[in-house]
Amino acid sequence: MTVELSQQFSTNNTSQSNDVIKNSAGLLAADFSSTNVLLHELQLGEQLNESVEQTRRADFSLMLAMLAEDVREQSQFLLPKTQEVTPADLSNVALRKQFNLPERAALALTTPNDVSQFNQAQSLVDNDLANIHLTNAMMPKPLAFRDDKKHIETQVLENTSLFTQIKHKQAAKACQIKCSQLAQNQSTAAIETDKPLSQPLNFNAKAWLDGIQQSLVKAPLLN
């Protein structure tokens, strides 16, 4: 902020020689002309305060007039800004690459051939557990044989009713068709996975109503 004058200039100050004022102002302008554009008060250093103390009104007015008119160039709007720190990549892939770790263990087998990875019977017979641990650390094996929350063990399914087994096969077949359509990028039509097993009964409402009407007409004749 600019420094305000703290005291009134006396009549003696106003009677200062015009030659001295012009010389002082000329020297000040010559000093500024050798630098860049004067934008804010910090470029003046202590010269504003000195001009107030030494009652140099011409210098004070000249320096204020030479400042930039745009308020955004003032010193209070030029505070240092902290540089934005890019957050570190802490994803699983980035950390494994940084520490040279193998890929994480898969949740389930991807192909039936992956079962061969668990052929460790000979290592157990030879009591070579260190080899098993080292191999699993270098190439982690799947944690389970399948990753399907809808899978039901065969032994459990066989203990259910015949109706439940048929409904389970029906839902599995519908899911298989839908997955096949998605794999071929086909439009997936609405597949009903829980439709009734029984066939709808044939019912002729008109014939039923006609039968009721005839019975009502013939009822008085029978009596």
Radius of gyration (CA) equals 47 Å
* Amino- and carboxy-terminal Cα gap: 118 Å
- Number of discrete helical segments: 10
The average pLDDT value, as a whole number, equals 76
Roughly what percent helix? 40-55%
Shape: flat
Extract low-pLDDT stretches: 1-17
Strand proportion? under 5%
N to C succession of SSEs: HHHHHHHHHH
Largest sheet: none
Q: Give me the count of strands.
A: 0
Structural class: mainly alpha
Describe the protein.
The N and C termini lie far apart (118 Å). Residues 1-17 have low confidence and may be disordered. The protein has helices at residues 11-14, 18-33, 47-53, 57-66, 92-98, 121-125, 129-138, 154-158, 162-183, 205-222. It is mainly alpha-helical and 223 residues long. Helix 3 (47-53) runs antiparallel to helix 4.
Task: Compose a concise summary of this entry.
By secondary structure, the chain is an all-alpha fold. It is built from 10 helices and no strands.
Task: Please name the defining characteristics of this protein.
mainly alpha, disordered N terminus, 10 helices, single chain, about 220 residues
